[in-house]
């Protein structure tokens, strides 16, 4: 198939390439460049549009607001990037998000905040491990598996919370969501650290390279001697922890562990990864892309709010952008 | 050169073929390739090829891998767009690069890779995309009748209601032919149709070919099985290195001529030069006893240090199963294994096998070997990236040096190390996989069809690399369906037939394509 595409022996000197062939190659390079950085252009366009439409866009308060509001999703998206690059999906992150928030709130009622945070993170880790086990040991397709586990986790959260929101009015509980460190809000700081660490791990470590490999060609990875199952389990654990942290931040911001939280977390975290240009088929992608995706979604939401669009219209727009991003990805593949 | 292309309803152009061979001499040639060239980047797959295929003939294109025969076929079938030149079908210029145009011109193609949909029934497969319909519904009864007629006509008995995936390879091949016959074609292109067939199925196919030819259908037969070609074709064109070497009627070819035409003496000479480094007295690196896996029912053999050992046998003889069992990918039901004289438990996983020193160069590089989106360098390093890392963090400098080093050993152009693997040619992709094991060298390399689908140049370089790895002390087991390749590459070859090792050929006198075939056929007849 693609085996025959461009290339051939690299020996120089053979004047076979005609002028039209080199023009073609040049055209392809330009097209490659454009598709590669399309996401940056889109982000820039949105920022410019926002600056024009919304005169308050560059206000410090508005920018801070945008960042704080998108932090929880941003954190989940870092985990989701790992999952998708490894060729997996996780649609249960919404339920884990809720579980993180509810556990954090409930434990915080009777124990120190730090303990509550650790327990909530452990819950995210455990649920991620469960996802990994279902996908690797029972060999269920990750899409279906996590729809199922997502429903089950959501049910467990309702049982645990007796379907009631858990209000916490305890000094310190809100610090995670509303406090700041040297002027930088905690959620934003956590998101930045998650991104930086995630980007480094993905692009510079052996583990990151292995994730690209299993996502790019699972059989080949197995035959090359990689521990495919462990790699897959690890990404579910990662995204589980990220989702729990996202849920904790939201619970802290609202002072309440809300069991019904997180309905659109799966869609949004998935969307920002794909909009960023990470391949939906796995094996290719980058953390900076997800960052662009997060910012695109955040600026878009901010723009729509300033235009006084309602949630329904925003949902339509988000959906269209997501499908467009996937179409672009598949178009790029067809060309090569 | 002005080309008249009469419109389809031009009274001069031949109408539908009158059956029965007679009168076909009056027709314009069925297919004319006129000065056709196909380039992939710098690689010239086909250079200024001109071939005329007489209407009503069975015409063979023969040649080694990468000789240009399949490219020619692809161009006629509309699957490949030529870089220049024209193709005429019964005198009319073909709109090239358009599979539908070729189909409309009466050309049906039967590909080497089967395109059967395993979950559908035989009947559904044969009529897919060309269902007999009436009133918006499919006419199952009519299709059933048509299919049993096809069965009769081809003299075969393919069950109609079973899932196509349960059929034997030969039956599936026959199913492809039936598919081509539903809408009666004027020209049928067969790409390596006998590659996966047992003798009986092969005979049935030849009968079908002759039968169709009697009905006036022109056939082009692409194959490197010279005996098959001599058995059924009436005209033979030899391709080599992307060029048409010669076209002659069957009667004017001998097998020796054909072999000389296909191989080209110069090429044969290149390989024999680097003769075996392995002394026959070298210690056995690997000993396998009584292994049973797939169609292998008790194979025993030894592989020495620094030796390149071929595994020969017909399709279905279990070459691939044997290699995969050694690589820890398939669990044999019996068998003992010694490495460097020590018996050890049979490796149950890929990782166990790798720890024991056995690594696989898989047969299907696209599906089993490559990471298409990753760079060439990462594709090389992936099985042992840790070697260029400290505490799990990759050093770009070290990684780059290692990749360049491994690339050099397999003659891979280091300037392309940054390119994604999917953008490379088949030959370069195969070199990458080889470089993977040059970077992380196993004691025993299991190379399954190491040069399948690569061009001649890359093929020679891959061969040289394998020999070099062996000279450096690696033991190499090569399974190949191409006997000439085994002859050129190996110090020694074992021949599998009926599930056991029936022959062990060593040395330039004994190890030849002809001898391998002889051993196989004697064994088959003996059973």
Task: Explain what you see.
The complex is a heterodimer of chains A (336) and B (527). In chain A, 73% of the residues lie in helices and 2% in strands. Chain A is built from 13 helices and four strands. Chain A has helices at 19-53, 60-85, 93-110, 113-136, 142-160, 175-178, 186-204, 206-216, 218-223, 228-254, 265-276, 287-306, 311-335, and strands at residues 166-167, 180-181, 184-185, 256-257. In chain A, a hairpin with a 2-residue loop joins strand 2 (180-181) and strand 3 (184-185). The longest helix of chain A is centred in the N-terminal third of the chain and has 35 residues, at 19-53. Chain A is globular and about 70 Å long. The relative contact order of chain A is 0.17. Chain B folds into three domains: 24-263, 3-Layer(aba) Sandwich (Rossmann fold), CATH 3.40.50.300; 265-357 and 442-527, Rossmann fold, CATH 3.40.50.300; 367-441, no CATH class. Chains A and B meet through helix 8 and helix 9 of A and helix 11, helix 12, strand 20 and helix 15 of B.
Helix count of chain A, per DSSP?
A: 13
Structural class label of chain A: mainly alpha
Largest sheet of chain B: 6 strands, mixed
The description of the largest β-sheet of chain A is: 2 strands, antiparallel
Question: How many runs of DSSP E, i.e. beta strands of chain A?
Answer: 4
Question: How many domains is the backbone of chain A divided into?
Answer: 1
Kindly state the number of beta strands of chain B: 24
Q: What is the rounded distance between the termini of chain B?
A: 59 Å
Ranges of chain A with pLDDT <50 over ≥5 residues?
A: 1-19
Low-confidence stretches of chain B: 1-23, 266-279
The CATH architecture of the largest domain in chain B would be 3-Layer(aba) Sandwich
- The coarse silhouette of chain B is globular
Number of self-contained structural domains of chain B: 3
Order of helices and strands of chain A: HHHHHEHEEHHHHEHHH
Helix content of chain A: over 70%
The CATH topology of the largest domain in chain B corresponds to Rossmann fold
Query: How many distinct helices of chain B?
Result: 19
Residues in β-strands, percent of chain B: 15-25%
């Amino acid at each position: 198939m693609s085996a025959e595409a461009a290339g051939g022996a690299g020996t120089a000197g053979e004047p076979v390439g005609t002028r039209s062939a080199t023009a073609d190659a040049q055209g392809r390079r330009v097209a490659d460049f454009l598709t590669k950085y399309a996401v940056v252009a889109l982000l820039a366009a949105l920022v410019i549009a926002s600056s024009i439409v919304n005169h308050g866009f560059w206000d410090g308060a508005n920018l801070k607001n945008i960042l704080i509001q998108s932090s929880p999703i941003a954190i989940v998206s870092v985990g989701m990037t790992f999952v998708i690059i490894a060729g997996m999906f996780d649609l249960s992150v919404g339920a884990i998000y809720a579980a993180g928030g509810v556990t954090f709130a409930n434990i915080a009622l009777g124990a120190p905040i730090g303990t509550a945070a650790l327990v909530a993170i452990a819950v995210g880790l455990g649920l991620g491990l469960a996802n990994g086990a279902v996908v690797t040991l029972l060999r269920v397709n990750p899409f279906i598996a996590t729809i199922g586990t997502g429903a089950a986790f959501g049910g467990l959260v309702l049982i645990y919370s007796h379907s009631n929101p858990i209000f916490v009015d305890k000094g310190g509980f809100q610090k995670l969501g509303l406090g700041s460190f040297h002027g930088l809000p905690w959620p934003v700081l956590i998101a930045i650290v998650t991104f930086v660490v995630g980007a480094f791990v993905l692009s510079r470590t052996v583990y990151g390279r292995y994730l690209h490999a299993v996502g790019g060609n699972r059989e080949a990875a197995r035959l090359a001697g990689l521990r495919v199952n462990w790699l897959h389990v690890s990404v579910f654990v990662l995204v589980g922890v990220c989702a729990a942290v996202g849920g904790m931040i939201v619970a802290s911001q609202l002072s309440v562990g809300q069991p019904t939280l997180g309905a659109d977390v799966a869609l949004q975290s998935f969307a920002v990864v794909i909009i960023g240009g990470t391949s939906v088929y796995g094996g290719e992608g980058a953390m900076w892309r997800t960052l662009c995706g997060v910012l695109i979604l955040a600026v878009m939401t901010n723009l729509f709010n300033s235009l006084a669009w309602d949630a329904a219209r925003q949902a339509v727009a988000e959906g269209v952008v997501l499908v467009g991003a996937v179409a672009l990805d598949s178009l790029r593949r067809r060309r090569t | 050169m002005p080309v008249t292309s009469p419109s389809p309803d031009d009274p001069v152009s031949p109408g539908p073929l009158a059956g029965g061979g007679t009168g076909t001499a009056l027709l314009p040639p069925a297919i004319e390739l006129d000065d056709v060239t196909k380039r992939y980047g710098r690689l010239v797959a086909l250079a200024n090829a001109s071939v005329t295929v007489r209407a009503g003939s069975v015409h063979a294109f023969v040649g080694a891998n990468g000789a240009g025969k399949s490219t020619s076929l692809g161009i006629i079938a509309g699957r490949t767009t030529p870089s220049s030149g024209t193709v005429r079908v019964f005198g009319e210029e073909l709109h090239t690069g358009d599979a539908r145009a070729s189909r409309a011109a009466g050309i049906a193609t039967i590909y080497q890779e089967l395109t059967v949909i395993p979950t559908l029934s035989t009947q559904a497969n044969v009529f897919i995309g060309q269902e007999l319909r009436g009133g918006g519904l499919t006419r199952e009864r009519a299709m059933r009748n048509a299919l049993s007629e096809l069965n009769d006509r081809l003299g075969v008995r393919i069950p109609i209601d079973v899932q196509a995936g349960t059929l034997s390879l030969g039956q599936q091949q026959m199913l492809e032919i039936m598919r081509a016959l539903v809408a009666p074609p004027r020209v049928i292109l067969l790409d390596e149709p006998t590659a996966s067939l047992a003798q009986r199925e092969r005979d049935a196919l030849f009968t079908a070919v002759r039968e169709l030819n009697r009905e006036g259908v022109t056939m082009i037969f692409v194959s490197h099985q010279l005996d098959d070609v001599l058995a059924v074709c009436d005209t033979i064109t030899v391709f080599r290195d992307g060029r048409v070497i010669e076209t002659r009627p069957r009667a004017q070819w001998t097998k020796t001529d054909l072999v000389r035409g296909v191989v080209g003496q110069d090429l044969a000479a290149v390989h024999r030069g680097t003769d075996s480094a392995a002394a026959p007295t070298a210690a056995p690196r690997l000993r396998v006893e009584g292994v049973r896996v797939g169609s292998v029912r008790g194979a025993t053999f030894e592989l020495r240090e620094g030796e390149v050992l071929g595994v020969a046998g017909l399709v279905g003889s279990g070459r691939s199963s044997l290699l995969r069992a050694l690589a820890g990918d398939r669990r044999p039901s019996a068998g003992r294994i010694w490495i460097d004289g020590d018996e050890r438990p049979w490796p149950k996983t890929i990782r166990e096998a790798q720890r024991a020193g056995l690594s696989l160069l898989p047969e299907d590089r696209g599906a089993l070997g490559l990471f298409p989106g990753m760079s060439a360098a990462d594709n090389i390093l992936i099985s042992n990236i840790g070697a260029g890392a400290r505490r799990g963090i990759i050093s770009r400098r070290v990684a780059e040096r290692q990749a360049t080093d491994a690339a050099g050993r397999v003659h891979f152009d280091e300037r392309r190390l940054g390119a994604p693997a999917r953008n490379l040619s088949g030959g370069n992709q195969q070199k990458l996989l080889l470089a993977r094991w040059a970077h992380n060298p196993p004691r025993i390399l299991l190379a399954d069809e190491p040069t399948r689908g690569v061009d001649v140049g890359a093929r020679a370089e891959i061969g040289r690399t394998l020999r070099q790895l062996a000279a450096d002390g690696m033991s190499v087991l090569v399974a190949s369906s191409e006997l000439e390749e085994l002859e050129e590459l190996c110090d020694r070859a074992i021949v599998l037939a009926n599930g056991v090792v029936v022959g062990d050929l060593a040395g330039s006198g004994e190890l030849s394509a002809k001898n391998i075939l002889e051993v196989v056929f004697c064994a088959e007849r003996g059973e």
